[in-house]
Amino acid sequence: MSASVLRRAWTLTSPAAPGSVVVGTVSGLGRFFAVTLTWTALGATGGTTSVFAQYLDGAGNWVDLARFGDVAAGAGATTYSISVNKRPSATASVTVGTGTTPVIAANTVASQDFGDTIRIIAVANASTTAGALQTIGVLASRGAG
To answer: Which residues have a Cβ under 8 Å from the Cβ of 61 and sit 6 or more positions away?
Structure first.
């Protein structure tokens, strides 16, 4: 019998110049019912930092799943948490991006199945001149399907 939970975590420095970086990927999520993602962040120098979660769809495309709240330049430690599950709820239409150009709005979760693989992208916005310490966590559970 396989494990009833899966945990992953990354500690990293956010990008030191404007642009996006894939900071981690988690596979093997297909057997789980729910996933909780956490992001603990410090503000970078000069610009805001955004963190996105994307899932790998059946056609091999990375599609926006969620975006945490943005962290302002120089901000103290802030922790965000989002949860998704295999029983999506009906919501209004949400604009999403694909590939390394995520566009989903801040503090938004697209209500959809997260598939088998999720990746995390950190984006340093305009004026960023130095990154800051970030911690990303993933907790997948079998839950009550």
So the answer is: 98, 99
